[in-house]
Amino acid sequence: MKSIQNYIAGQFVRGKREFADVNPADGTVIAQVTEADQDQVDQAVLAARNALSGEWGRLGVRERAARLHKVAEGIEKRFDCFVQAEVADTGKPVSLAAKLDVPRSSANFRVFADMIKMAGLESFQTETPDGRSALNYAVRKPLGVVGVITPWNLPLLLLTWKVAPALACGNAVVVKPSEETPATATLLAEAMQDAGIPAGVYNVVHGFGPGSAGEFLTQHPGVDAVTFTGESRTGAAIMKAIASTVKPVSFELGGKNAAIVFADCDLEEAVSGLSEAVFLNTGQVCLCAERVYVERSIFDAFVGALKKKAETLRIGWPVKEETNLGPLISAQHRDKVLSYFRLAREEGATVITGGGVPEFGDNRDQGFYVQPTIYTGLPESARCVKEEIFGPVCHVAPFDSEDEAIAMANDTKYGLATSIWTSDLKRGHRVAQAMNVGITWVNCWFLRDLRTPFGGVGLSGIGREGGVHSLNFYSELNNICIRL
Length: 484
Ligand code: NAD
Ligand code: 6OH
Description:
The protein is of the alpha/beta class and 484 residues long. It has 16 helices and 21 strands. Strand 8, helix 6 (155-168) and strand 9 (172-176) form a beta-alpha-beta unit. The mean pLDDT is 97.
């Protein structure tokens, strides 16, 4: 049986306890994972602290950036291993891991390596009212030891999205990947070693949240900042846990994202874009649209076309090239999604397609699949319209005016992403600017430029990462004022 270990101070280390890593496609155990105890988390934090005062702390920005480019090369060199590990852990289709997760992970290192080399900071020539003059300028310093806690849906992509800028800014990290998807974080340690990232700069501790590595890390007095991606209620628990030590936090949390489809859109483009926005990664992307608002005159045509798309998705073994819909991550998560399928019916939904579990007649019946599902007919107050489900499911509702669409889209405690589908450019701008979210796409979805601000409002998060926003979060700025 494969074993997945912690990575502390440049060494792969076992612990006293192990837990099973399960393949969501058929429920089989694919590896045993070492669970880090308090001692090992202490060791990882100490290793990171020591690394800051060692070679890593003395490296200039150019050399740091060069090594991060080598990490990207190391990911590319192990491309197939990363793809296989991600597919086995998550059940996502191999085509998706090869197109999205792994290429984006090396891109994360390349972009932040380049950005830190180019990054400038403010300076001000100062004149005070009492006639003195000074020069003010800021310098960037690492935060120190950064705790990185990540979810299971895009494991390597989301981990490197935080690790790359943290290292670019000169920090050392202790990462706690999701217990559901431990493999690629440990594999990344090999790329770190090859790239000459000194021991202790990148540490991995495996385990769970409460009473395990996640909690040990967030509560650790030696951790200077915490960056977290995951559920909103986990964000709240982490915030509580770290309140007494007053650390900076960056939170990328859940969503209940809306899409607004106007009658003047290119219908084919909108249907195909929304099929991705609803079903990509089996709906397990924080940016996925679970609420789709469609102008009444094209409502029936849109629903019919989206149903057709949903029914032609190829649900199957994740390792097969032709598969474009895999299982959900776990039995527990499938129970949650199925409980919303039941609730939708109780709340009075019309089932356009799906709403159940596919039958294969082979080992996939022990996996965690659900059907791609579309509902209509729910009131806006329904729990299925208000709560994040995180599965391949959406509710489609009609609207009659732009104002009504905006009001419905914004009627949520979340505020991560929206997509707007229209061929009227002015309307696209106007509606985009009315959205209470961190990210709005017009005539596209999940089209990323890593220099742009990324994050959410309300229950969807605190702060922004991406581009200079990441550099600013992962740095302390020291402003220096020189009397002239
Ligand atoms: P989760 O919150 O259950 O777990 C995320 C991580 O937090 C895991 O590593 C987990 O072990 C750890 N954790 C759990 N409890 C903890 C605690 N008390 N202290 C410290 N660590 C703890 O999230 P998930 O189920 O893995 O991921 C799905 C959720 O993540 C969805 O809500 C989704 O919307 C959200 N998400 C958001 C973004 C974004 O960018 N906004 C991106 C991806 C996923
Ligand atoms: C959430 O599941 C997806 C998040 C995506 C990013 O953080 C990104 O940088 O594209």
